[in-house]
Amino acid sequence: MRVLEFSGEIGSHEGCGCGFKHDKSLKEVVFAPLREALDHLGQLDLHPPYAVFYDDVTYRIAGRTVQKVLGARGVRVASPTFREAEEKAQMLGAVKTVIAVGGGTVIDVAKYAAYLSGADFVSIPTAPSHDGIVSPIASLFAEGRRVSIMTRAPATALIDVSLLSSAPHELITSGFGDILAKTVSIKDWQLGRDEASEAYCKSAESFALRAINVVIDALKGGHDFTERVELLATALINSGVAMMIVRSSRPASGSEHLISHYLDMKLDRRLRHGIQCGIAALVMAILHEKWNPNWWEDEAYRSDGLREYLSKAGVPLRLDEAGISGELMAEAISEAWRIRPDRYTILHKHRPSREEAFELLRESGLI
Ligand SMILES: [Zn+2]
Ligand SMILES: [Zn+2]
């Protein structure tokens, strides 16, 4: 068993001087085979009665085991909506600890239901596909639209690497893409700091940077598959901690996430979140290189390095391969800033015309 602790490293907000409160809800993350990790819950002050959330798939993967070992009440999640989470929250009664076994949908419904009911929350991811595993943000649907709201980060996450390693490959690729995209989100946040007087937190930055470096290390070679997945999980957690510290997605979501959100609204067949973000990050890296003198100097973080690592992670780097039309991607590049006009990014500093967007796509090699 390996335990990652954070509160010491996060430091105080007075020391940081950033103006954010430095949320420290996530106390530690346990890396261990599932049954062993479950035995550890009591030591973390996470007590019964337990409720375990799952869907049909994650019930078979691990939900059933968790329910049996803990004698927990089972809650089946059917849809990723606020209404679903509200209904489940009402049923929780005296439940003290809500445990999510899942991918994104289950984690987000359980996270919000736990928040509403006041129960403690534990995250058990079944795939390393995105950094919502430990973040305080729940992203759910309301009247057909996806909305992100601030809740509370889990008290702990239990990471069983053998479980994560058996996830479908495209989910693992998605996790790598979501983290590599932080090269852009951090620089977008710095633009906000330098050009729009936004608050900036060095402590959150250091966790986001560590996430990128861990993933680059994992992709460089010299690790077997399981080690790579373990490093990826560590990176996703570090990115979630970055968001937790400032209670905002800002450190982990910039122009590349806006483009991904735009694609979510327009694509009939969406790709995995982190794959869309990875592709978009490559284009945004090139836009930064043209218009942002504060862009990275380090080769590994620049567009050529990014292309290399995205490719190693299995992210498709041709739009036709990915199933996105050049037209739609160009539209996303020139229109996505409208999704969040108030969150300053490179797309707000320099809004590319449709022609420029096509030029960027050619330069990136995507078309
Ligand atoms: Zn993301
Ligand atoms: Zn700070």
Keywords:
367 residues, Rossmann fold, Dehydroquinate synthase-like, alpha domain, 2 domains, seven-stranded mixed β-sheet, 53% helix, binds zinc ion
Q: What secondary-structure arrangement, pairings included, does this model have?
A:
Blueprint: E1 2-5, H1 7-10, H2 13-16, E2 28-31, H3 34-39, E3 50-54, H4 56-70, E4 73-76, H5 82-90, E5 97-102, H6 104-117, E6 120-125, E7 137-142, E8 145-150, E9 156-159, H7 161-165, H8 169-180, H9 182-196, H10 202-219, H11 225-246, H12 255-266, H13 273-291, H14 303-313, H15 319-322, H16 326-335, H17 346-349, H18 354-364
Helix pairs in contact: 5-6, 8-11, 8-13, 8-14, 9-13, 10-11, 12-13, 12-16, 13-14, 13-18, 16-18
The structure holds zinc ion (2 copies).
The site of one zinc ion has 6 residues, from helix 13.
Describe the structure.
It is a single chain. The protein is of the alpha/beta class. The protein folds into 2 domains: 2-164, Rossmann fold; 169-364, Dehydroquinate synthase-like, alpha domain (Up-down Bundle). The protein has helices at 7-10, 13-16, 34-39, 56-70, 82-90, 104-117, 161-165, 169-180, 182-196, 202-219, 225-246, 255-266, 273-291, 303-313, 319-322, 326-335, 346-349, 354-364, and strands spanning 2-5, 28-31, 50-54, 73-76, 97-102, 120-125, 137-142, 145-150, 156-159. The chain has a 7-stranded mixed β-sheet with strand order 1-2-9-6-5-3-4, with helices on both faces. It has a two-stranded antiparallel ribbon with strand order 7-8. The model has no long low-confidence stretch (mean pLDDT 96). It binds zinc ion (2 copies). One zinc ion (ZN) binds next to helix 13.
